[in-house]
Amino acid sequence: MEPLTIIPPRSGTAFILRKGQKLKVVDIEGEQVSDFVCYNLDDRAEYLSSGRTIDYAETIFLTKGHPFYSNRSNIMFELVEDTVGRHDFLLTPCSADTFRIIYGHTHPHRGCFGNLCEALKEYGISPDAIPICFNIFMHVTVNGETGRIDVLPPKSKAGDYVILEAKTDLLIGMTACSAEMSNNYSFKPIGYQILD
């Protein structure tokens, strides 16, 4: 079993997860989101799909027991353990444009989108090929009447985790999220571990 690998605050990484392997994602200090995306390692035009996963699950609150589908309706992984039970699969990865448009930054950070672009570039993934991420530990509420969304502090505490089991060979991109609201205005690391 590999030791815990640390993703420093406001950064990202990419790696390969083989079919049958499990990935443990740990919120080391608490209240820290990790944007997660994956691709079919053998055909990277097949990627994790928010729309198809939510459609087939019939819920936006995905947790233990839910399969996650690709844009081709194949199961990419299953969420097999979850100590938090609340994550987001609606919102796009934060980007320089997010910080410019929402926060009014004049010299914005490149955000999770920029970090994923950088990490996935060596695997041949272009910026336009990065879809909506599964935002692990992110706490988004939706008003059932008005449709308004609110980003609240994550419910995750130090040591909370999820475990995903790969159903095919995957290329993974992950971040320690860079957006203030998502992480209760404090940037922290994310840990991950591949379990065979």
Account of the 3D structure:
Strands 1-13-3-11-7-6 form a six-stranded antiparallel sheet. Strands 2, 4, 5, 8 and 12 form a five-stranded antiparallel sheet that branches. 41% of the residues are buried. It has 196 residues and is mainly beta. Strand 9 and strand 10 form a beta hairpin. The chain has one domain. The chain is built from three helices and 13 strands, in the order βββββαββααββββββ. The mean pLDDT is 96. Helices cover 13% and strands 35% of the residues.
Question: How many DSSP-defined strands?
Answer: 13
- As residue ranges, the low-confidence spans are none
Radius of gyration, CA atoms, in whole angstroms: 15 Å
Helix content: 10-25%
Helix-strand sequence: EEEEEHEEHHEEEEEE
Shape descriptor reads globular
N/C terminus separation: 7 Å
Structural class: mainly beta
Q: Enumerate the strands of the largest sheet in spatial order, edge to edge or round the barrel.
A: 1-13-3-11-7-6
The figure for the number of domains is 1
Strand residue percentage: 25-35%
The main sheet comes to: 6 strands, antiparallel
What is the typical, i.e. mean, pLDDT? 96
Domain DUF1989: 6-171
Protein name: Urea carboxylase-associated family protein
Quick rundown:
By secondary structure, this protein is mainly β.
Any key phrases for this structure?
196 residues; mainly beta; six-stranded antiparallel β-sheet; five-stranded antiparallel β-sheet; 3 helices; 13% helix
